[in-house]
Structures are given as structure tokens and as C-alpha cells.
Amino acid sequence: MAAAPVSDALVFFGATGDLAYKQIFPALQALVVRERLSVPIIGVAKAGWGLEQLRERARASIQEHGTFDEEHFQRLCQLLRYVDGDYREPKTFSRVREALGGAKRPLHYLAIPPSLFATVVEGLAQASCLKQARVVVEKPFGRDLVSARELNETLHRFLPESAIFRIDHFLGKEPVQNLLFFRFANVFLEPIWNRQHVRSVQVTLAESFGVQGRGAFYEEVGAIRDVLQNHLLQVVGLLTMDAPFCSDPENLRDEKARVFKAMRSLDPASVVRGQFRGYRGERGVSPTSQVETFAAVRLFIDSWRWADVPFYIRSGKCLPTTATEVFVELNHPPRPIFEESSLAAPNSVRFRLGPDVLISIGARAKRPGGVMRGEDVDLVAIQHPGGTMKPYERLLGDAMHGDVSLFARQEAVEEAWRVVDPVVGGTTPLYEYEPGTWGPREADALIAPHGTWRPALCPSGRAELPEAAHPEATGDAMTAMH
């Protein structure tokens, strides 16, 4: 297959914003260092700035959030351009067209609120900036299935699907890449990677911090919209998809889309929402907020490979540690042979996806001595830091080269919203939990038919044990908050 043409300019809207400061400028600098970026970079915003102010903003950003080197920074500065203007004014896009000069295949990156996507894309089209162009849009891609479809229709008025790159920075993380590679570069998992051998699957995205001053934003999204509909369902997709028949990016996205179509829409009875104590006192948060900061769900995939295997997914803020893990529990042996408890832990496969990479196999081995008794051991296949290539560096570089592998396609986005649509918008009870615990005890009841939540590993490699997960509460233990 012929290589896609490389974009010959990068235009990023929202150049003075928080995302640009924390993520985009360090990613651009890293791309320059790796010699993957040598085309004009045009920042666009309405801040009353000039080019020198943008360069100083870039310097401060890279010094705080990246790896600063004066020589490489000067190379980045030589590529930077700046257009100041209102996104609702046609003359702003005329100036963008002028700044592009002779560029024919620009990449437009919209690091702006989704409510402005249509305005900016229409402005670019009217200024003749979309011919042979690509457009990268940030999440959240809609708020529900209806709004996602409307947004897709708007983008398709001006762009073919092949030119739309829906970014999910989670898919650019090295550990997530390793999950995909490990599955399809090795053959030993395939015979057991199905309903005949897998008893259940757990996916945990835990954050030890709260909303960090972004209460007003979080009031608009909540845990289900923020991470479950996108990050975590994407991980489940990579975990459960069949192998693409070749390395073409569209084949990989075909297989992932097929899994999303097989996912059963969530049953409200299989969802537990929680809110950490103190959230309602955060700046920008309603004192009567019903927004969840924790969510646990039971999901099923109605495919031949995964029918009836429960997928337990949880995510929350103010939990005991910050980590993302997948835990695949295999079936017990048909019957115990040795003189030990039949309650011994079954075999398992663990993928630690953050903050570092860990892939391990949980097995049973004999203890030293004269008695045939065993102990649980972890056979570590790989363990190392998360890698030096940050998500935005990888994803922006891929978009510049037209590689769609790690970007969501329209049908997958809409299917993901179909899955969560029955439970967004506060349709289920909300339970309070104490910061530093593993969420409300109702989440334990959700998984009880298949055991208990496996504790995620803390950064030191030790499990964060859940002994103190549910402190004694007065009265109703954990009372529903509505």
C-alpha cells in the first residue's frame, strides 16, 4: 500500500489554551528533536498576542512540562507562526490561509471546545483551507449518541471520513500500544483468549487526585463521559478484537469497530455511580451535584468469542492510587488434584497500562517442602517505564503522516455512545464514598458474583490492598444520594 502524503503545515487552534501549554508545545518540541516535524506551525487563538508572546509561552511550557534544550527550542521557534483572531470572523481564516503560504496539505488540529468545531471547520472551508487537508478533533466527541451523530454530520459536510482524526490521547500511550503488540505478536495467548478459558475481565483506571480545580468542566462530563465512553471502552476493544488480516490501519479499525458493534448497551442495574465526599465543595461544582466521580459497570460482548464473559470496568477520582490495569481471570482447573484449597487463585494475565508497563502471568507453583501445597506467583513477561514518547507526540506525528491506526472512526464512536447512552445524565443512583478508598461498597456487590475487585498495583509494584476501602459509616453505611 502506498504511503500517505505527509502534511506540509500544522495549524493548531487553541494555541494559548491550557491543553497547548501542558501537552502540545512539549509534543511539538519532541517531534522537532526526533526530526519528524520541519514544516510551518501556525498557532491560532483570540488572545491579543503576537508571535513573540507565543514563543515565550512555548518556552515556559516546555521548561515546565517537557525537556528543554535551547538549540532545539530555537529550531521550533523558527517554525512557529501566529494568527490572532475570533473564530467567528471570516477574516481570521483569511489570515490562516495567508500564513499557510504555499502549503497544500495542512493538518488542522482543533484543541478547542467541541461547541466550536463546526464554526472552525466551516470557516476553514470558506477560506479554501480544507482542500487535501486533515482535521484532528479533540474529545469529548459529543455528549451522547444524538450529539455525536450531529457532529459527524457537520464534519462530513466539509470533509471525507479519511480526513477526520478523532484523537484519544489514551491510545497514544506506550503501555496501551504494548497491549496491542503483545496480543498479536505472540501466539500463546490465542488458544485461551476466549469464553472457554476466560472467567471474567477487570479494567481499572484509578486516580488518587480529585478534579484539580476543574470542577466546572467536570460538572459537564462526569466519569462515564470523561473516561469510560472513550478511554476504557477503547482498551476493551484492543483487548477483545480479532486480529486484523494485515497491517493496514483500516483493517485494524475494522476489527475494533466489529467489537464495538457486539458490545451490549449498559443495563442501569449493572452500573454503580459514586461521588467522593467533598466534591460538592469544589469551585464550580453545584452544592446539589449529581455528577459521578466514580463509575463501575458490568459489560457484555455478544460475540462468538466473548459471549457471557463479564467485563467489569471501574474508574474514579480520589482512589488509593493512580494506575490503569487490565486483569484477565482464567477458569479454575476442572478439579483439584493436590491437597490444597480449591479456593486458590486461578491463573490470570495482568496488563498494567499506567504509569508504567507491566505484563505478567499469574500462576500456581509448589511451595518448597515435603507437602504438595502451592503458592501464587507472578511470571513477569515485561516491566519497564512507560516510555519516552508521550501520547500527543505519537498521535500528532501519526496524523501528520496520515496514519489512522490510533484514531477513532465514526462508527466506533457512535457505537461507544450507544453502549453508555442508557446510563449518562444521572439516570442511576449516586453513592457517596470517602476519598482514599476504592469507591462505594455497592461496586463490590456488583462484582460479587465473580469474586472481588483485584487491587491495582501502586507505583512501587505493591498491590494497594482494599482492607480500608469501606470505613464504617453511621446509619445506612453508604446511603444513596438521590
UniProtKB/TrEMBL annotation:
<comment type="pathway">
    <text>Carbohydrate degradation; pentose phosphate pathway; D-ribulose 5-phosphate from D-glucose 6-phosphate (oxidative stage): step 1/3.</text>
</comment>
<comment type="similarity">
    <text>Belongs to the glucose-6-phosphate dehydrogenase family.</text>
</comment>
<feature type="region of interest" description="Disordered">
    <location>
        <begin position="463"/>
        <end position="482"/>
    </location>
</feature>
<protein>
    <recommendedName>
        <fullName>Glucose-6-phosphate 1-dehydrogenase</fullName>
        <ecNumber>1.1.1.49</ecNumber>
    </recommendedName>
</protein>
<feature type="domain" description="Glucose-6-phosphate dehydrogenase C-terminal">
    <location>
        <begin position="181"/>
        <end position="453"/>
    </location>
</feature>
<comment type="function">
    <text>Catalyzes the oxidation of glucose 6-phosphate to 6-phosphogluconolactone.</text>
</comment>
<keyword id="KW-0560">Oxidoreductase</keyword>
<dbReference type="InterPro" id="IPR036291">
    <property type="entry name" value="NAD(P)-bd_dom_sf"/>
</dbReference>
<dbReference type="InterPro" id="IPR001282">
    <property type="entry name" value="G6P_DH"/>
</dbReference>
<feature type="binding site">
    <location>
        <position position="207"/>
    </location>
    <ligand>
        <name>substrate</name>
    </ligand>
</feature>
<dbReference type="InterPro" id="IPR019796">
    <property type="entry name" value="G6P_DH_AS"/>
</dbReference>
<dbReference type="InterPro" id="IPR022674">
    <property type="entry name" value="G6P_DH_NAD-bd"/>
</dbReference>
<feature type="binding site">
    <location>
        <position position="169"/>
    </location>
    <ligand>
        <name>substrate</name>
    </ligand>
</feature>
<feature type="binding site">
    <location>
        <position position="173"/>
    </location>
    <ligand>
        <name>substrate</name>
    </ligand>
</feature>
<dbReference type="Pfam" id="PF02781">
    <property type="entry name" value="G6PD_C"/>
</dbReference>
<keyword id="KW-0313">Glucose metabolism</keyword>
<dbReference type="InterPro" id="IPR022675">
    <property type="entry name" value="G6P_DH_C"/>
</dbReference>
<keyword id="KW-0119">Carbohydrate metabolism</keyword>
<feature type="binding site">
    <location>
        <position position="139"/>
    </location>
    <ligand>
        <name>NADP(+)</name>
    </ligand>
</feature>
<dbReference type="Pfam" id="PF00479">
    <property type="entry name" value="G6PD_N"/>
</dbReference>
<feature type="binding site">
    <location>
        <position position="317"/>
    </location>
    <ligand>
        <name>substrate</name>
    </ligand>
</feature>
<feature type="binding site">
    <location>
        <position position="226"/>
    </location>
    <ligand>
        <name>substrate</name>
    </ligand>
</feature>
<feature type="domain" description="Glucose-6-phosphate dehydrogenase NAD-binding">
    <location>
        <begin position="11"/>
        <end position="178"/>
    </location>
</feature>
<keyword id="KW-0521">NADP</keyword>
<feature type="active site" description="Proton acceptor">
    <location>
        <position position="231"/>
    </location>
</feature>
